[in-house]
């Protein structure tokens, strides 16, 4: 018997021993770097070609400066809890690059005191905020005037419209809709209903593609949603109500269930089944990157772009930015090195490879020669929209994701049940405010 | 085989009365019909499970235009093996595979050793408060990983395990409520007399566990291995939270790593999907016989 027990114990020990062979001899987390070293840890969120590009950028930087970047691929770094665990464990990376959908979370981390103020390091690195496009200021600073976020680059949303379908419907492709009223009129002309009542084509569906994003239309209609200074949530506002009522007008006209069955077979933006590519929808709101998706999956679609239409009193020629952001968690060991790299990485000439494919934008007012979109109609519109003082980052609050969910659920209630938006908005506003006050 | 068949038939004949003999061909036809129906239903059901996998395989061999062709193309015109080549080089596939296998093998060993020992205590030894404590153990099933994630991280950070494979492996040497439940049910079904006989011969509890119960429990242990294998193989959050260096990442993170910021690269994703699924299918085929037995024995569904 004793023999069996000792056999059991020995095998357990052997396993543990082998395991220790598998364990790291020295983990490459930030704990290894210290203030004077030129080494730092950097979390990046993307794989694929984006990763390849980032690794090239890192290699160039290391060669130019003699720094050592411990780059770690962390998918959805902010949302999945890894960052939170690392910060609470006192083991955060020195620099995090957040995905364009997550900047609100980054901002809310800043407002909760989880991020390091960057001003001191930015100043040392020779950064001047005058050189940054106005639309990014709101995101970079908290109301206390300190800078917590440094954007890497950004994406904008545009109205894509099908030139052939415009011409066939007797519309002028050189003169796309600029106001909501014009958009509605064009949409009506472009919509074709079959004899059995089903759709052949729809001119426009407000709630697909970027229109599905909860903030796109409220922003265009002029809603503020949140005041960063007073920390008050303001959902029950006239522009917001107008936006929902406008969406409901499409639901009343075209029956959202019917639209749903019409759109159910639609492919995503990176498939040739996308309704804009198949010609089932004549206009849609989508990101600058969609132009490249069109080039890959539907090169024959003749299209043009225009700024997102807005009603009188709304935000003219504006967009909600999809900004990729750099930030430094509290407790980082080597923030200066991290900022030096971030400022190297968000220059036009370093971003050029990306920009020249996806038509994304850098945050700088001055554009470099490395960008080759000269005389490109889409890129010109992208720049115009990005330059608009009305473009920005809505809902910079720690309850941004809840707010997004609330807005989406109200929208669904409005378009499917024709509910009264004002009442629902007030309820959500109170609920979110309560949640925010507790945080 | 040939020897037993006629004997069986004659045995069968003896029970049939002479005037019923003419009906025999019909009942046989009925029997075949029944069998046919059963098989048909089974085939239809299995198709529902097989088709997505076949689609994955066919998709992994297509270029992007064929992938979204309407009507769908089942067999690609040109077999596009480059998806595999590209997918395997899109991230360090073999390194991640090695890491995954280390985690999988050791967690499986841990799961089998620890859970069977614990389940033995809960099923074949009488002690005070046993069932009450068992319920507490079961209650841990209700804790989602997200809830214990940060406390675990802090704990492992204190011990200095963050960045190593320890946080992914060592907990499996301390039991898992689901496996304990599964094994306990199985052990309870083994006749008490076997243990008693062994004890009469001078065996103590550990010898009974090691020499009597474990050898009888191969089917359920195989089930535990399969479940644990699948769990460790596809675990995403664990490796993501506890590892801090790309060179230690596992395959489930690698799959995500194929996707660019703007382009999901479907063809490569499908190729890696096939590569990720194959080992699970292979291990299932190897342990299939035991697996089904283990599941039916305990009345637990997988």
Structural features, described:
The complex is a heterodimer of chains A (439) and B (302). With 439 residues, chain A is an alpha/beta fold. Helices cover 44% and strands 14% of the residues of chain A. Chain A has helices at 2-22, 48-65, 82-88, 103-111, 119-124, 137-140, 163-168, 180-190, 216-221, 238-254, 256-263, 275-278, 290-297, 335-345, 348-358, 377-387, 400-417, 421-438; strands spanning 39-44, 68-73, 95-98, 149-155, 157-162, 192-193, 199-204, 225-227, 232-234, 281-287, 303-306, 322-327. Chain A has a five-stranded mixed sheet. In chain A, helix 2 (48-65) links the parallel strand 1 (39-44) and strand 2. Chain A is globular and about 75 Å long. The model of chain A is unreliable at 19-35 (pLDDT under 50). Chain B is mainly α. In chain B, helix 4 (82-90) crosses helix 15, helix 5 crosses helix 9 (177-188) and helix 10 (192-200) crosses helix 11. The two termini of chain B are 36 Å apart.
Beta-strand residue percentage of chain B: under 5%
Rg measurement of chain A, Å: 25 Å
Assembly type: heterodimer
Helix content of chain A: 40-55%
- End-to-end C-alpha gap of chain A: 59 Å
Helical stretch count of chain A?
18
Helix content of chain B: over 70%
Low-confidence spans of chain A: 19-35
């Amino acid at each position: 018997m004793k023999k069996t027990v000792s056999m059991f114990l020995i095998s357990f020990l052997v396993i543990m021993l082998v395991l220790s062979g598998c364990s790291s001899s020295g983990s490459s987390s930030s704990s290894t770097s210290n203030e004077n070293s030129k080494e730092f840890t950097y979390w990046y969120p993307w794989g694929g070609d984006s990763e390849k590009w980032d690794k090239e950028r890192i290699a160039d930087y290391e060669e130019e400066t003699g720094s050592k970047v411990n780059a770690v691929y962390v998918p959805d770094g902010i949302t999945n809890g890894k960052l939170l665990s690392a910060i609470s464990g006192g083991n955060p990376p020195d620099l995090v690059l957040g995905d364009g959908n997550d900047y609100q979370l980054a901002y809310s981390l800043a407002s909760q005191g989880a991020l390091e103020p960057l001003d001191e390091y930015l100043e040392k690195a020779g950064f001047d905020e005058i050189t940054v496009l106005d639309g990014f200021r709101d995101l970079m600073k908290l109301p206390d005037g300190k800078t917590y976020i440094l954007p890497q680059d950004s994406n904008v949303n545009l109205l894509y419209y099908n030139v052939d379908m415009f011409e066939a419907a007797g519309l002028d492709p050189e003169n796309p809709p600029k106001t909501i009223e014009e958009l509605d009129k064009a949409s009506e002309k472009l919509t074709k209903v079959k004899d059995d009542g089903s759709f052949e084509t729809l001119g426009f569906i407000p709630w697909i593609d970027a229109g599905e994003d909860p903030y796109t239309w409220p922003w265009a209609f002029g809603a503020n949603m949140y005041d960063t200074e007073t920390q008050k949530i303001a959902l029950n506002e006239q522009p917001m109500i107008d936006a929902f009522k406008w969406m409901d007008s499409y639901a009343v006209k075209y029956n959202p269930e019917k639209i749903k069955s019409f759109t159910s077979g639609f492919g995503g933006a990176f498939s040739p089944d996308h309704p804009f590519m198949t010609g089932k929808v004549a206009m849609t709101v989508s990101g600058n990157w969609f132009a490249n998706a069109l080039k890959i999956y539907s090169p024959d679609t003749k299209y043009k772009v225009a700024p997102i239409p807005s009603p009188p009193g709304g935000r003219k020629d504006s967009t909600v930015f999809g900004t990729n952001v750099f930030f430094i968690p509290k407790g980082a060991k080597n923030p200066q090195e991290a900022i030096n790299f971030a400022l190297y990485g968000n220059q036009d000439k370093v971003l050029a490879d990306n920009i020249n494919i996806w038509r994304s934008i850098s945050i700088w007012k001055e554009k470099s020669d490395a960008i080759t979109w000269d005389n490109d109609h889409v890129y010109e519109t992208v720049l115009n929209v990005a330059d608009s003082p009305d473009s920005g980052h809505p809902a910079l609050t720690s309850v941004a994701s809840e707010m997004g969910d609330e807005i989406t659920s109200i929208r669904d209630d409005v378009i499917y049940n024709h509910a009264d938006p004002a009442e629902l908005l007030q309820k959500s506003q109170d609920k979110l405010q309560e949640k925010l006050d507790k945080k | 085989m040939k020897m037993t068949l006629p004997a069986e038939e004659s045995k069968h004949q003896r029970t049939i009365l002479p005037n019923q003999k003419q009906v025999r061909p019909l009942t046989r036809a009925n029997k075949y019909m029944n069998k046919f129906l059963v098989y048909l239903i089974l085939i239809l059901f299995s198709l529902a499970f097989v088709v997505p996998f076949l689609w994955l395989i066919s998709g992994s061999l297509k270029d992007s235009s064929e992938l979204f062709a309407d009507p769908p193309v089942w067999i690609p015109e040109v077999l596009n093996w480059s998806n595999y080549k590209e997918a395997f080089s899109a991230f360090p596939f073999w390194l991640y595979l090695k890491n995954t296998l280390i985690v999988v093998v050791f967690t499986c060993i841990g799961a089998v050793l620890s859970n069977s020992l614990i389940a033995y205590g809960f099923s074949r030894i009488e002690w005070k408060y046993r069932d009450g404590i068992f319920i507490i153990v079961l209650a841990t099933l209700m804790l989602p990983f997200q809830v214990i994630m940060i406390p675990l991280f802090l704990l492992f950070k204190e011990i200095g395990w963050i960045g190593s494979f320890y946080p992914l492996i060592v907990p499996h040497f301390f039991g898992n409520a689901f496996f304990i439940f599964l094994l306990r049910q199985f052990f309870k079904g083994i006749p008490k007399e076997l243990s008693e006989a062994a004890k009469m011969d001078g065996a103590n509890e550990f010898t009974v566990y090691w020499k009597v119960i474990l050898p009888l429990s191969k089917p359920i242990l195989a089930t535990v291995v399969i479940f644990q294998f699948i769990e460790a193989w596809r675990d995403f959050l664990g490796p993501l939270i506890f590892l801090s260096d790309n060179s230690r990442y596992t395959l489930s993170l690698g799959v995500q790593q194929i996707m660019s910021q703007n382009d999901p690269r479907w063809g490569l994703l499908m190729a890696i999907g096939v590569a990720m699924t194959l080992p699970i299918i292979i291990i299932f085929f190897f342990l299939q016989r035991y697996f089904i037995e283990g599941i039916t024995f305990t009345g637990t569904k997988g």
